């Protein structure tokens, strides 16, 4: 247990900050994922074949390719692509993107593909009569979406979104390959300098278990809140 | 885009795909066995056995696969007495460490899939069997297991695809699977976009094949 003390001799404070970093990356990625699903869910549900095709390509490709590969692509290819765009505008200096941003965007795009599917499924399983009733009552588009469809959709989506959250949280461990100091990277550093990988990786596993356990408790509360009346 | 590089690295990546497929198939077979055992344990009435099986699946589903591989590959080598046993022959090889981690991981997910399949079998089917005077053993082998397999096919197909994507983590313990080879080529040519996109294409193709295979099986074994 000496290894986990806070301060200069132990790894407690480092691992604590690393845990905060993991949470920060996971939350940012989840939000970026919501942003993506906000764009692609309407595409999936639209009657336009072209928009359908774009959204289907996005979700199929991302869900069919390893997460690690997506992260490598973003980390190694990202700065090159941005520098290429910048060179069009006449900027030729080296641009290095922050590991936190690349990591969150990469995981966010992955998480977005999963949550797009969740939202699509949830909206599709709402009774058709609800949409028709809104039209008959002459609701404005945004009001009928916010007041009628959204609450019903969230009730159906939350259990599946909690799965997406778990996947996203676990995917953040892959960002350690880019050198961002989150739980996995910090354990790697600690294991390297103390030559005690068994202890530190097991402790990392405990930290992840704690995060998944706590987030499940929180999500269950949300689930209860949104299934009022059912 | 450097098309020449893509053409020259394609055969290398394809030969690495063999290792990916090997890792996938071996760990799926072992994982299916583990999953079946733990699904049966989960359905056991004894609370101790039940909790043990639940704990196993919770542990492996609640932690990232990367942590599991690292514990097995880097962590277990640290235990002195383990090095003296015959297990060390297996545990010093990154290939087998990766397979152990993958098998345990997919076993946890498979046990959940099979458990829910067994639990959602309509009681009417089993009751029908009983009222026809069929013995419990035959009900299990001829009714419960086939129905459970049919019901778990879609979820298991997803699990196969997830596992295939998971095998890319083998590259972190020095194995040269598709991702490992792609990373190696990138580190010598500095052309990440071309090589990683090509590797992604190969993975996508494999996903496509698995997806259609499962779809075919689902159709073949549908109830209608």
Number of helices of chain B: 10
Order of helices and strands of chain A: HHHHHHHH
Q: Which secondary-structure class do the elements of chain A indicate?
A: mainly alpha
Radius of gyration of chain B from the CA trace?
21 Å
Strands of chain B, count? 0
Q: What is the approximate shape of chain B?
A: flat
Number of helices of chain A: 8
Classify the secondary structure makeup of chain B into a structural class. mainly alpha
Task: Please report the first level of CATH classification, the CATH class of the domain at 20-174 in chain B.
Answer: Mainly Alpha
Mean pLDDT of chain A: 89
Question: What average pLDDT do the residues of chain B reach?
Answer: 91
Radius of gyration of chain A: 21 Å
| Fraction of helical residues of chain B | over 70%
- Percent helix range of chain A: over 70%
| Beta-strand residue percentage of chain A | under 5%
- Biggest sheet architecture of chain B: none
CATH architecture of the domain at 20-174 in chain B: Orthogonal Bundle
Describe the structure.
The complex is a heterodimer of chains A (230) and B (224). Chain A has 230 residues and is an all-alpha fold. Chain A has a single domain, classed as MetI-like (MetI-like fold, Orthogonal Bundle), CATH 1.10.3720.10. Chain A is 79% helix and 0% strand. Chain A is built from eight helices and no strands. The model of chain A has no long low-confidence stretch (mean pLDDT 89). With 224 residues, chain B is mainly alpha-helical. Chain B has a domain of 155 residues: MetI-like (MetI-like fold, Orthogonal Bundle). Helices cover 82% and strands 0% of the residues of chain B. In chain B, helix 1 runs antiparallel to helix 9, helix 3 packs across helix 6 and helix 6 packs across helix 8. Chain B starts with a helix and ends with a helix. In chain B, 38% of the residues are buried. The model of chain B has no long low-confidence stretch (mean pLDDT 91). Chains A and B meet through helix 2, helix 3, helix 6, helix 7 and helix 8 of A and helix 2, helix 3, helix 8, helix 9 and helix 10 of B.
């Amino acid at each position: 247990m000496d290894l986990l003390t806070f301060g200069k001799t132990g790894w407690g404070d480092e691992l604590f900050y690393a845990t905060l970093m993991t949470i920060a990356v996971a939350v940012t990625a989840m939000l970026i994922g919501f942003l993506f699903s906000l764009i692609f869910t309407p595409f999936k549900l639209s009657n336009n074949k072209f928009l359908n095709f774009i959204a289907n390509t996005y979700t199929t490709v991302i869900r069919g390719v390893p997460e690690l590969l997506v992260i490598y692509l973003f980390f190694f290819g990202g700065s090159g692509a941005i520098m290429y765009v910048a060179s069009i505008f006449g900027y030729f200096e080296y641009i290095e993107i922050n590991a936190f941003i690349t990591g969150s965007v990469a995981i966010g795009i992955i998480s977005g593909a999963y949550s797009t599917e969740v939202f699509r499924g949830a909206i599709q399983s709402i009774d058709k009569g609800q949409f028709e009733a809104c039209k008959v009552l002459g609701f404005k588009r945004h009001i009928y979406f916010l007041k009628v469809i959204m609450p019903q959709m969230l009730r159906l989506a939350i259990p599946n979104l909690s799965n997406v959250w778990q996947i996203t949280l676990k995917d953040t461990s892959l960002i350690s390959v880019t050198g961002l100091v989150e739980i996995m990277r910090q354990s790697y550093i600690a294991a390297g300098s103390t030559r005690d990988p068994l202890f530190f990786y097991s402790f990392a596993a405990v930290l992840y278990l704690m995060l998944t356990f706590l987030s499940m408790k929180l999500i269950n509360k949300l689930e209860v809140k949104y299934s009022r009346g059912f | 885009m450097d098309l020449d590089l893509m053409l020259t690295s394609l055969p290398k990546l394809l030969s690495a795909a063999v290792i990916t497929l090997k890792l996938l198939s071996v760990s799926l077979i072992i994982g299916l066995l583990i999953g079946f055992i733990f699904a049966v344990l989960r359905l056991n009435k004894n609370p101790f056995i039940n909790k043990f099986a639940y704990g196993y699946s919770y542990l492996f589903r609640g932690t990232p696969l990367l942590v599991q591989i690292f514990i097995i590959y880097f962590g277990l080598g640290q235990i002195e007495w383990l090095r003296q046993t015959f297990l060390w022959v297996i545990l010093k090889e990154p290939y087998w460490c990766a397979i152990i981690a993958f098998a345990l991981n997919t076993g946890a997910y498979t046990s959940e899939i099979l458990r829910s399949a067994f639990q959602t079998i309509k009681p009417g089917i089993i009751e029908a069997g009983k009222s026809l005077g069929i013995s419990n053993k035959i009900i299990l082998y001829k009714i419960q297991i086939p129905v459970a397999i049919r019901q778990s096919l879609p979820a298991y197909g997803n699990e196969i695809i997830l596992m295939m994507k998971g095998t890319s983590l083998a590259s972190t313990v020095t194995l040269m699977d598709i991702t490992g080879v792609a990373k190696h080529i990138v580190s010598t040519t500095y052309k990440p976009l071309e090589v990683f996109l090509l590797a992604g294409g190969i993975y996508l193709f494999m996903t496509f094949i698995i997806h259609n295979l499962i779809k075919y099986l689902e159709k073949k074994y549908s109830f209608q």
